[in-house]
Amino acid sequence: MSSLTYLGTDPGASKYGNFINYYDFHPAKERLDGFPTNIWCVDKRDTRYACLDVGCNSGELTQNLWEFISANLRLKSDAAECGQIADCPKQSSVDEVKCMMLGLDLDQTLILRASEANTRKDLIHFKHCDIMNDVEVEQVVGNFFGVHNQKLDCDHKFDVVFLFSVTMWIHLNYGDPGLSKLLCTATKLSRNLIVIEPQLWKCYSAAKRRCTRAGGDGFPLLSNIKLRGNEAIEKEISKILSEAGFKKIAEFEEPKWKRKMLFFQHSSVRM
Ligand SMILES: C[S@@+](CC[C@H](N)C(=O)[O-])C[C@H]1O[C@@H](n2cnc3c(N)ncnc32)[C@H](O)[C@@H]1O
User: Fold this and answer.
1) Euclidean distance between CA atoms 73 and 91, whole angstroms
2) pLDDT at 26
3) Could you tell me which of 137, 145, 169, 212 has the fewest CB atoms within 10 Å of its CB?
4) Ligand 1 mean position, distance from CA 165 (Å)
5) What distance in angstroms lies between residue 18's CA and the mean position of ligand 1's atoms?
6) What pTM was computed for the model?
7) What is the Cα–Cα distance from 78 to 87, expressed in whole angstroms?
8) What would the 3-class secondary structure string for the chain be?
């Protein structure tokens, strides 16, 4: 996709959720109200904390996430119990750990905007990439970690993968198998946390309505989707992530936005 496209004259009628004015309506800062401060932990030996934001749009939430995590990075407490959200004592040497962020989006124009507005070009990178295209993902992630033409291994995983308001667009365009693939990709790319903010089921019909009204095809795969309803979708997310060793450690609903944020952590991780 090479330009900011929407259907007809309605910038809210979009096929991929690549809205041109998303953060005018959903201010990025508010989205992090109530976001947990105590789960962003690094090991003593770590020199970086790597974050991936899938479907970053024009990058405003990505930059806010980077600031939030940078301010809240802590060293893992040796004494803390495995699998618990523990309050890790903040220690001065955490300042030596670099928080790095990669934001990916399908829309090149949004990536260009995000890059232009980027205030930390040394630590935040925005790249054009279709998360459903394994070859593109491998290349872009490889470049981020400084490896080229070589298979990615566990040194090339992110500490956290964010899927904010992107699951529905993949689900609408690729059906149930597409949603599973997205979640599997997230499990392969994360070595610690996966944070998901799924859209509510009512948003699916709203997206279809706007798309059809604007002359689009209204998502032909929608009628084949078997995972219907908030509960069914959440259950499937938990199932796929738990099969890959991630268990839910927290969830909360952002008060204005009304969407749930689900926090999963790999069972091998000790806080
Ligand atoms: C509704 S916006 C959400 C933006 C941001 N994550 C947030 O919550 O503030 C969804 C974004 O996902 C992107 N997107 C949709 N399908 C994608 C794909 N296959 N690969 C990468 N990005 C995709 C769209 O271009 C759009 O910018």
Assistant:
1) 9
2) 87
3) 212
4) 7
5) 6
6) 0.92
7) 11
8) CCCCCCCCCCCCCCCCCCCCCHHHHCCHHHHCCCCCCCCCEECCCCCEEEEEEECCCCCHHHHHHHHHHHHHCEECCCCCCECCCCCCCCCHHHHHCEEEEEEEECCHHHHHHHHHHCCCCCCEEEEECCCCCHHHHHHHHHHHCCCCCCCCCHHHCEEEEEEECCHHHHHHHHHHHHHHHHHHHHHHHEEEEEEEECCCHHHHHHHHHHHHHCCCCCCHHHHHCCCCCHHHHHHHHHHHHHHCCEEEEEEEECCCCCCEEEEEEECCCEC
Question: 104 CA to middle of ligand 1, Å?
Answer: 8
Atom of ligand 1 nearest to the CA of 16: 15
- 19-47: average pLDDT: 89
Q: Which of 57, 110, 219 to mutate to test the pocket of ligand 1 (most atoms within 8 A of CB)?
A: 57
pLDDT one-digit tens code per residue, 100-157: 999 999 999 999 999 999 999 999 999 999 999 999 999 999 999 999 877 778 789 9
Ligand 1 neighbours (beta carbon < 6 A): 16-18, 22, 55-57, 61, 104-107, 110, 130-132, 164-166, 169-170
User: Does pLDDT of 54 surpass 70?
Assistant: yes
pLDDT tens-digit series, residues 108-120: 999 999 999 999 9
Q: Indicate whether 81 pLDDT > 50.
A: no
